[in-house]
Amino acid sequence: MDMQTSLLDRLFDAGLLIDTGVDGLYGRSGAFEDVIQRFEGLISAFGSSSPSEVIRFPPGMNRSHFEGSGYMKSFPQLAGTVHSFCGCELDHVNLLQCMAEGNDWTKDQKATDIVLTPAACYPLYPTIAKRGPLPAGGGLFDLQSYCFRHEPSKDPARMQLFRMREYVRMGTPDEVMAFRQQWMERGQELIAAVQLPVEIDVANDPFFGRAGKMLANNQRDQALKFELLIPVTSTAKKTACLSFNYHQDHFGKTWGLTTSDGAVAHTACVGFGLERIALALFAHHGLDTADWPAPVRKALWG
């Protein structure tokens, strides 16, 4: 049995995760949720020195905003859409008959105006662009959302529905690069406070297709993305638990985001995979939080 399945089975047996019958889709126990809540408090404590606007978006976003973001150009394999029944009474009868016969009852479902949020920051950019130019000094935003990516796996650190906490910085290139560097340092300090082993490495997003390989290479060559890696289900293939991303002017141009002087705004973000960090804590410190090292308990529970 591989290490990933072993950890997943232990989490199920301990009741920390709840099997739904779909890989990457799990219920969470109160103990699991408590760890996430405590870790989010630690994130907030580390971010409190830089005042930010708190925004919480739902796990679904405006389909037109999603289409305008360009996500489907780069990551069509990860996207999730929301479809619903929009037929008449006869269509409903046919749907029930299909279900009774074990046939595909989803083929006549229609796309709604909602898609599943792929990253916590995606609804933010059109929202802020509607306000007009950024104030002097740019903007800093504190986000959290459930996100969806279609990549079913037995690896519990690769969930299909998961939560992402983000800080997003908008402003001049110097402002957003300084923000990213600051959080690369803060992120390591934060993870050290809960006694997890880490390393930071340059990374790339999972762009789709042949053209995606070129985009991934360019992203790495320009050092636009770094990840903080922690061994969770494998010591050989570590898990990205934090990411530090410089988008350059991509979202600024896409949504018409401008600085106070009218220049195209640049953006950067730090993202925390909350379930992944909780899994790392359970994997390294044990499945009973009462037995975790005293410094870790103090950092999380005070």
TrEMBL record:
Keywords: Ligase
GO MF, any single term: ligase activity
Entry's EC annotation: 6.2.1.n2
The keyword Ligase is annotated on this UniProt entry: yes
InterPro entries recorded: aa-tRNA-synth_II/BPL/LPL (IPR045864)
Keyword Lyase appears in the UniProt entry: no
Matches recorded under Gene3D superfamilies: Bira Bifunctional Protein, Domain 2 (3.30.930.10)
Top enzyme category: ligase
Taxonomy, superkingdom: Bacteria
Protein name (database record): Amino acid--[acyl-carrier-protein] ligase
Organism, as annotated: Pannonibacter tanglangensis
